[in-house]
């Protein structure tokens, strides 16, 4: 009689650099919690080696993994089957094999939505103000479009990038000048910062003028930031000081990990306060 040793699933996160990624901590927390055999490791890959890395996934024994900056567009291009979210966003952050075919999804929009569902159930509205026009903004706009927002005002320091992104999406997305931010605030049911403004390593001087003023905001507005280092970014501190609803960005990171974990390890994991505290602890917050 032969002993059949079940194959242990091996997953990865790749980026350049990748050392800062919290994904290994999230997936290892779940592997332990659900008592599953499996591994999840960070693999740093330079852009020029990315295609070779993708082509060697099966040989290396990986069942799939996460992709972070700067490889998300390449991961999308190199995968053979792409779901609707990846296709609409034009970038992939989650890869897996189905019948030996490399499949891709983008779960950033899902993570964004699930985080707001968690902390602001029933969120929504007619108008959103999205600040920033990078890769993260694409995932946010995709979600807001799905969620039925009719007016998505997009402001970016570099106007041309906002125009390009607005052109890519439907007529609901309207590019506006950076200088118009405060005029758009009173219209918004949701305000989302997707820029790196407010990040710990992009420190704004304490006494410097905020890039947005929330004094004319609707009392029912929901304010959120996709930056989570620090957890309370300047825009969230301002919302808090004005007694406005706000949701911090760490939950987006936690929730975007859920669909990948389920594909690789077979269980849909739960994002709860225990995980949140664990990851905040690792971040030193
Ligand atoms: P990501 O993929 O994480 O969104 P990105 O593509 O580099 O990253 O985009 C970063 C966003 O932050 C952009 O909207 C960028 O504005 P520009 O397109 O004008 O570069 C914005 N950003 C970064 N630093 C900024 C600053 N000091 N002031 C205003 N916007 C800033």
From TrEMBL:
<dbReference type="GO" id="GO:0004764">
    <property type="term" value="F:shikimate 3-dehydrogenase (NADP+) activity"/>
</dbReference>
<feature type="binding site">
    <location>
        <begin position="132"/>
        <end position="136"/>
    </location>
    <ligand>
        <name>NADP(+)</name>
    </ligand>
</feature>
<comment type="pathway">
    <text>Metabolic intermediate biosynthesis; chorismate biosynthesis; chorismate from D-erythrose 4-phosphate and phosphoenolpyruvate: step 4/7.</text>
</comment>
<dbReference type="GO" id="GO:0019632">
    <property type="term" value="P:shikimate metabolic process"/>
</dbReference>
<dbReference type="InterPro" id="IPR041121">
    <property type="entry name" value="SDH_C"/>
</dbReference>
<feature type="domain" description="Shikimate dehydrogenase substrate binding N-terminal">
    <location>
        <begin position="13"/>
        <end position="95"/>
    </location>
</feature>
<keyword id="KW-0028">Amino-acid biosynthesis</keyword>
<keyword id="KW-0521">NADP</keyword>
<dbReference type="InterPro" id="IPR046346">
    <property type="entry name" value="Aminoacid_DH-like_N_sf"/>
</dbReference>
<feature type="binding site">
    <location>
        <position position="108"/>
    </location>
    <ligand>
        <name>shikimate</name>
    </ligand>
</feature>
<feature type="binding site">
    <location>
        <position position="226"/>
    </location>
    <ligand>
        <name>NADP(+)</name>
    </ligand>
</feature>
<dbReference type="InterPro" id="IPR006151">
    <property type="entry name" value="Shikm_DH/Glu-tRNA_Rdtase"/>
</dbReference>
<dbReference type="InterPro" id="IPR022893">
    <property type="entry name" value="Shikimate_DH_fam"/>
</dbReference>
<dbReference type="GO" id="GO:0005829">
    <property type="term" value="C:cytosol"/>
</dbReference>
<dbReference type="Pfam" id="PF08501">
    <property type="entry name" value="Shikimate_dh_N"/>
</dbReference>
<keyword id="KW-0560">Oxidoreductase</keyword>
<comment type="similarity">
    <text>Belongs to the shikimate dehydrogenase family.</text>
</comment>
<feature type="domain" description="SDH C-terminal">
    <location>
        <begin position="249"/>
        <end position="269"/>
    </location>
</feature>
<comment type="subunit">
    <text>Homodimer.</text>
</comment>
<feature type="binding site">
    <location>
        <position position="93"/>
    </location>
    <ligand>
        <name>shikimate</name>
    </ligand>
</feature>
<dbReference type="Pfam" id="PF18317">
    <property type="entry name" value="SDH_C"/>
</dbReference>
<dbReference type="GO" id="GO:0009073">
    <property type="term" value="P:aromatic amino acid family biosynthetic process"/>
</dbReference>
<feature type="binding site">
    <location>
        <position position="228"/>
    </location>
    <ligand>
        <name>shikimate</name>
    </ligand>
</feature>
<feature type="binding site">
    <location>
        <position position="249"/>
    </location>
    <ligand>
        <name>NADP(+)</name>
    </ligand>
</feature>
<feature type="domain" description="Quinate/shikimate 5-dehydrogenase/glutamyl-tRNA reductase">
    <location>
        <begin position="124"/>
        <end position="209"/>
    </location>
</feature>
<dbReference type="Pfam" id="PF01488">
    <property type="entry name" value="Shikimate_DH"/>
</dbReference>
<dbReference type="GO" id="GO:0008652">
    <property type="term" value="P:amino acid biosynthetic process"/>
</dbReference>
<protein>
    <recommendedName>
        <fullName>Shikimate dehydrogenase (NADP(+))</fullName>
        <ecNumber>1.1.1.25</ecNumber>
    </recommendedName>
</protein>
<keyword id="KW-0057">Aromatic amino acid biosynthesis</keyword>
<dbReference type="InterPro" id="IPR036291">
    <property type="entry name" value="NAD(P)-bd_dom_sf"/>
</dbReference>
<dbReference type="GO" id="GO:0009423">
    <property type="term" value="P:chorismate biosynthetic process"/>
</dbReference>
<feature type="binding site">
    <location>
        <position position="68"/>
    </location>
    <ligand>
        <name>shikimate</name>
    </ligand>
</feature>
<feature type="active site" description="Proton acceptor">
    <location>
        <position position="72"/>
    </location>
</feature>
<comment type="function">
    <text>Involved in the biosynthesis of the chorismate, which leads to the biosynthesis of aromatic amino acids. Catalyzes the reversible NADPH linked reduction of 3-dehydroshikimate (DHSA) to yield shikimate (SA).</text>
</comment>
<feature type="binding site">
    <location>
        <begin position="156"/>
        <end position="161"/>
    </location>
    <ligand>
        <name>NADP(+)</name>
    </ligand>
</feature>
<dbReference type="InterPro" id="IPR013708">
    <property type="entry name" value="Shikimate_DH-bd_N"/>
</dbReference>
<feature type="binding site">
    <location>
        <begin position="21"/>
        <end position="23"/>
    </location>
    <ligand>
        <name>shikimate</name>
    </ligand>
</feature>
<dbReference type="InterPro" id="IPR011342">
    <property type="entry name" value="Shikimate_DH"/>
</dbReference>
<feature type="binding site">
    <location>
        <position position="256"/>
    </location>
    <ligand>
        <name>shikimate</name>
    </ligand>
</feature>
<dbReference type="GO" id="GO:0050661">
    <property type="term" value="F:NADP binding"/>
</dbReference>
